[in-house]
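hiii so my PI (J.) wants the whole complex modelled not just the main chain, which honestly fair. so below is everything: two entries, each one labled with what it is. i double checked the lines twice but i was tired so who knows lol
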Amino acid sequence: MAPPVIDPSASDPSPRPAPDPYRPDAEQAHPSDAAETADILRGTRGTVVPVGAGTKTGWAAPPTSCDLVLHTGGLARITEYLPGDLVVVAEAGVPLAALQQRLAEHGQMLALDPPEEGATLGGIVSANASGPRRLRYGTVRDLLIGVTVVLADGTVARAGGKVVKNVAGYDLGKLYTGAHGALGVVVSTTWRLHPLPPARATVTVPVADSAQAGRCAVRLARSPLTPTAAELRWDGAGSGGALVVLFESTAASVRAQAREAVALLGAGTTGDDIPAWFGRRPRGDLVLRLAYAPAALPQVLDALDGLGTPDDAAGSVRITASACTGVAYAAVPPGADLAALRAALAPYDGSAVIVGGSPAGTAQAAGAGRTAAEHWGPPGDAFALMTRVKDRFDPGRRLSPGRLLGGL
Amino acid sequence: MSDAPIDLLAGRLRDRIGADRVLTDPAQLRTYACDGLATVRVQPAVVVLAGTRDDVTAAVRLCAEAGVPFVARGSGTGLSGGAVPVADGVLVVLSRLRQILDVDPDNARVEVEPGVVNLWVTREAAPHGQAYAPDPSSQQVCSIGGNVAENAGGAHCLKYGFTVNHVTGAEVVLPDGEVVHLGGTAPEHPGFDLLGAFVGSEGTLGVATRLTLRTVPAPETVRTLLLGYRTVEDAAGTVSDIIAAGIVPAAVEMMDALAIEAAEAAVRCGYPEGAAAVLVVELDGPGAEVEEQFAQVLELAGARGAFETRVAQDAAERDLIWKGRKSAFAAVGRISPAYYVQDGVIPRTRLPEILAEIGRLADDAGIRVANVFHAGDGNLHPLILFDDTVPGAAEAAEDLGFAILDLCVDAGGSITGEHGVGVEKKAKMSRQFTADDLDTMHRLRCAFDPAGLANPGKLFPTPRLCGERPGVRTAADPARDPALGEVF
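here's the output for the full assembly
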């Protein structure tokens, strides 16, 4: 039996001092369950910023106000695990790595692989974090089947359920995913699980230019092969890059699919090693997540190349793309013209949002000093509706104020 | 023509959309009084046969200006009464909006109008080696707009997910007539995932006029297997064994003896005689994986005493196996004068005990129940048989259906896996959710539709106005929603 392909020991599940990303003088609260979380929200009136392990605080704009940092790390119980039903219920503060470890005992996994070490389930939901395996398994919205939140007024409300198939009522889990706590504080999550695949194989294809990257991605996406991930490392025009396609299935199947992939893509070497950069986010002073129509990969790479190379980028991976899905991460120079980049991506339904980076040598929080407009880009025609949603869920605008699109 | 608000509205709709597309003649309206839930009938005041997306926007705007409620309807195949009209309201029929707007295989997207039939999407994608995965049994007639409203499922959602996992964008007319774009071609967008919340909102948040769907590559290999069992427990045990072996089949369907009898009578699908249950198991994917797992499934089935194992050798044999399953609902018409379809979900591992309990409830009520279900995800479809010429029989059937839903909720499941809440099950929402849960959902409703004009009287157990204090409910208004009386 091959080793589990998502290695639960790869990230550190032990608790560590949560960062205080916003205001040194803000109150800190550490509830240990949903009821205490509700008491805190009922018993206070000021602005509140929920935080899990704090690994993705830079993924949303800095709050315009923060009277209280609400740490959810104390909500750390795996409440219910039903291996036969491939369902698990776990509180928001449970680290993903700890959950994976427990699930692996039964040959199962939560098919989410964001790389941030120590990240909690609540933080992953609230930031809508994903990794390479989104190609096969989707993202939080495809795997979260139930959720409990505490609203700004202390109401504890559940949506979804404990069965995968369920269309009773509005699917509010979708709404809370990626909302950075602005509609309610996620306190419990329920997930559909998948079996751990028994074997893996990789195919590594050198890519000379952006057009070739695009051709490989489309060919793979349109083939009946079922890779779990296809990650592109892009070193810029002139240097090219490498596409690593990951197959995870039965031993016979991954071998056969790897061979077929080499034939399909016209080149490539097979193996079972995953390179160190695979699934890691690029690091730098300004890191972006881009989303776009999947076939626009070459245009996106060209637009990123046009921004230039960060000064400190020598030797580090700057750009990675989940090649068939329409998502990429890029470290760009701190002074990059984001408005121009966003305009270049617009024909491909593209967006570019800041997911991290801090001015070198400062203790400032990631993304500090940037406005919501710089962070997220321009809102679309549904923004007035989003504002109405925010005002119904959080009429006093006390949860994560200013962190979301358009300064919500 | 009186100057009652609804008549004034009808006049404005005629002026804007065309007299031939606005129906007010009671004889014509009768056709639209119900959807697939035939027991609830409400005649609307006006029917608008929208011919263009602009017609839809105009109709919704005129309704909003007049303060008149409206309901959108696609093919009308829904089984929970989600498209039941509102008396004194407008029914906006979308089934003429049938344009496929774009087929984009490199991005794996197809863009359609809401009246496009589910199966047409796969037909468009097939020449490019792709398919649209959600496949409700009614896929030959049901519309994408209705699928999106109800978050439709189907046999293959065990592996591929539901409608919500295959819609990336929507153009929506909000209940006040404003047009917004949720999602798009890209996989994600900054801001709240309003698209995710819109899918499955049963027409209560607005009307989709254009949808961007995600297609998937057609699998390299498909293997379909029919298994016959002497006991329901053995069939259910095989399902658990398959899942425990780490196999995710494309579909696992189960039918009990009465459902088999009905399917045989209707379509001669050749299911094994004397079986207490049959399973239809389908695996798809790359050849090597499918063949290896298929051999495992055969072994597991044998270990549970499957007495008949039929492997489809070609597409025709596969179609025959599926024909029995997909026609099962209609087939029970052969063995009963009338029937009522329920839709509930339980944790898969509790299948044998819940089925036994359904059997007990049915015996106590003296009612026959045929069970057809998506066993892989615990989605039950009990078909409750009754004679509609017997006074009280329909009510008894409905009572039994609701008792089965109570079982589902008590087992940790759901009152609906794919048919939606509609008018049929709204009273049961408070069995599954607390008042706080429902109040929170209502906040979303109020953000989209503060005037409560879009498909009122559906999904929520008790009608209520936005701005009311949570917990304080107004009484149902029978003039506005006479269907309420049939549920409570």
